[in-house]
Write a structure and sequence with these properties.
- The protein is α+β, with helices and mostly antiparallel strands and 185 residues long.
- It is 23% helix and 36% strand.
- The strands form three sheets. Strands 7-6-1-10 form a four-stranded antiparallel beta sheet. Strands 5-4-9-8 form a four-stranded antiparallel beta sheet, with no helix packed on it. The protein has a two-stranded antiparallel sheet with strand order 2-3.
- It is flat and about 70 Å long.
Amino acid sequence: MFPAFVPVIVVAVLLIGGGVALYHHFFSTAAVTKRKLRAHQARMIRYVREGETVKVQGEVLGDGELLSAPISGRPCVAWQVLVRQRRQRGKNSRWIEIVNEEECTSFLLRDRSGQLFIQDPLASMALDFDERGSSGFMRDPSPELSAFLSRRGHSTENFFGFNRATEWREGGTGRCTGVGAPRRT
């Protein structure tokens, strides 16, 4: 027979786990930014005033040298990569986030009415993950994913040389929507 306190412990663990998941879903940086984007109506760049919080959208133009997204290799001004691997202990398995990186550079945003220089894009953008992939048993990882992970001290193979179950998502910019308070320079 179970002691009387075991169901209480199980319920407490489930509530805490659910609370952490809900907190991450609603209060992560990307979730907060997306809520701000939904709350504002997009304005043309011509009508943006300095210091006013606005939402602008348009075509991204590089302001100098473009970045290269690490896995897909496509040119962009900002990218974010999320890599997870499935870890197993006994009969239990779970997905562990092993890499969550982002990089950006300043850029110009252009719409029909003008251009706006964006100096700190990650503070006000939420990138959509538009590239994704996975590897695992009988599915080899791409050479780009293997190289990306090995530069960060991770491997796509386990101790025995078999592929680890790995999934990745990558977001980059070509068209952009952002919210913030512009400054004239």
